[in-house]
Design a protein that fits this description.
- The chain has 97 residues and is of the alpha+beta class.
- The chain has one domain.
- It has 2 helices and 6 strands, in the order αβββαβββ.
- The protein has a 6-stranded antiparallel barrel with strand order 1-2-3-6-5-4.
- A hairpin with a 4-residue loop joins strand 4 and strand 5.
- The longest helix is centred in the first third of the chain and has 26 residues.
Length: 97
């Protein structure tokens, strides 16, 4: 096998590892939910399940632009929400109820 082919194989293996590890993180410790409403300033998100989350001050600007009815993943012991839109934005939260 040529050096170029070996390099290509290593690159493909690295890409596969990143994709698979990211997918397992999303699927492994996360629950799916849908946003019911978001405070105008992005500080509070209420889910259709009834759960409410306070958004970290650093992430409120991002959350302001999320939409009701966006599908999200609630992850890491309910301390992170990942929007399942094309951007896959993540915000830090704490559960209120």
């Amino acid at each position: 096998m040529s050096e170029r082919a070996m390099h290509l194989n290593r690159c493909l293996a690295a890409v596969a590892f990143v994709v698979l590890s990211h997918a397992s993180t999303l699927a492994g410790s996360c629950d799916q939910d849908t946003i019911d409403s978001i405070a105008d300033d992005g500080s509070i998100i209420v889910m259709t399940s009834g759960a409410s989350y306070r958004v970290s001050a650093l992430d409120q600007t991002d959350a302001m632009f999320w939409l009701a009815e966006d599908d999200v993943l609630i992850c890491k012991g309910e301390t992170e929400i990942i929007n399942k839109n094309e951007k896959r934005e993540r915000i830090r939260v704490s559960r209120i109820r």
